Amino acid sequence: MDHLQHVNFDLRREGSSNDNNKKGDEDNNMDFKRGSWTIEEDLTLMNHIALHGEGRWNSLARSAGLKRTGKSCRLRWLNYLRPDVRRGNITLEEQLLILELHSRWGNRWSKIAQHLPGRTDNEIKNYWRTRVQKHAKQLKCDVNSKQFKDTLRYLWMPRLVERIQASSNSNNQVNIQQSNDNIISNNNNIVPNMSFTQENYSSTTTTASSENSIGTQISDMSANCYTNYPINQGDYGESLISPTGYFQNGALDFRTVDIHDNQQNMSQLLLDDVSDNFWNIEDMLFLQQQLN
DNA sequence: AAATGGTGCAACCGCGCGCAG
DNA sequence: TCTGCGCGCGGTTGCACCATT
Q1: Which chain A residues in 111-130 sit with Cβ < 7 A of strand C?
Q2: pLDDT in tens, A250-275
């Protein structure tokens, strides 16, 4: 039960308090339990939401008999217990989408998450901080610098597209419509018509590594998100598939790329770091090709 | 085998917005 | 208009796990 690995951690926060109780927040009230959620608490919350739906989190927490703040319940539900939440490795397609959308919107994690089915803003934020910022740090440049943004935009993202295309060529095509019919539930609050027990608990909190049909189908779907995935476009004025226009019709367009403008920067990056597992040997060769 | 350091990620925090009264 | 509450967002924290020494 991989997803429960952290259930008992963070006990240091148990019972701690803070005087800044403002705006009606109950977060710092000593009467509320803090720290890791137990299986029993999870089951209580899931069953209550299954019966009564979500929202009005403070009163929900009270009526469910949970000694938790509404905030804590909401967070637990949205980031962990929702049936459609998807955890596990961020796929290449999702990485590409995150980079694209972040280049457009910045740290608007929830907005970005709306376009990655099953992914939470917290998970995307964690991905950005642990992966992308790490690489910026290793490349000795600020994550918000033009240098690093250019690296993402002109080298990392096209490279991801190449990898996606390479992998999609070797995989069977997926019936997107079928996936769409069966899966698309992002942005909707799903209240399954079932109650949760300890026995079916694990199957309701899916992980990406599990071979359940939902995880597989979502993965299949995301594999095609740059070609024909009918994502909810929300407030996009133009195509979500190619927000910045680099990937029109699924094809790379380097017309706007003047790699030589960044030649000095990129050369310095190459000198600075060749050891990272993201910028592997293949990537280094690719970068050098672009610079020559 | 033990110690140490790095990483991933769940959970917490403060802040601000929107809405109802 | 003002006030309080509910909620969501982005940033931060710190433990468990894992790899390395």
Answers
A1: 111, 121-122, 125-126, 129
A2: 333 332 333 343 444 443 443 333 33
